[in-house]
Amino acid sequence: RARWPRFLAIIAVLGIFFGTLGAVGVWLTPIVSQQVVGFKARADEIAVSFLQPDDDRNFFVQWNPEVAERSARSRDVVDSFLESQHGTLERLGLPTTKRALYSQYIEPQRGQIQQVLRSFLQGFVGLASGLLSQIVFLLFVPILVIPILSGMEGMRRKAFNLIPPQIRPTAATLFQDIGTVFSRYLRGVTIAILGYMLLMCILLTVIGAPYGLLLGVLFGLVYLVPYFNVVICGTTLAVVTYLSGNTSGPLFGFSAPMPFTATILGIYMVVHFTYDSIVYPQTVGRAVGLD
Fold it and tell me: How far is CA 105 from CA 47, 88, 102, 110, 112, in A?
């Protein structure tokens, strides 16, 4: 449209694309890499220490006032639940303390549980690292895009020569309309996904979710998975937030990880369904001319 030579226009578009991508990458890569490394370290720590018994629950040291005070301060949701259901659990012959629960059900399967936990967390780290490493494949984009765009007019003419002359004008108009709508649809979907990714990065960082940028990028990448995207993202957010041990963020705080995790998950759900129900249809609808 600007009457540039085709090859110069292609190079200009690719230069803008890779320049923007490079600037964003220079800014985000150190932050995301730091979060991936931090999560990996946390995963190793959890895998080693999560299934360790609490020595302060030992019968032979509970008489110590210092141990009793420390245990009272470190009570978590499991202790509170077991204490509230003590009578029912006792009648059913089930463990009534956290240490008894550990000794009866966890300790015999400790190796297997630890392996499953380690595999899950390391799998998440591997997924994040793998997605980051896929950026390298963008280097192949110019190799494919330049010859395709350079020869697009020739390919178009050859394709239309295969259509009978009697219906060629009608077919050309129809294909042009289809191509225009489809390209606008792809543009709208791309903008919606990038907007969702940016929104999640900002939201999770502001409300204090751990590894907010990393999770925001991952949530954007799985946004188009129908029906299961919110399940995948919600489960990942809940597990990562709870296992991080965080109890507070910049905007609010609690005394235990569980209510903090529930609040983070609730905020994410509200924002996700709002975006999915209002912003995404509006963005794609305007792109294809349905407004």
Answer: 17, 18, 6, 9, 12
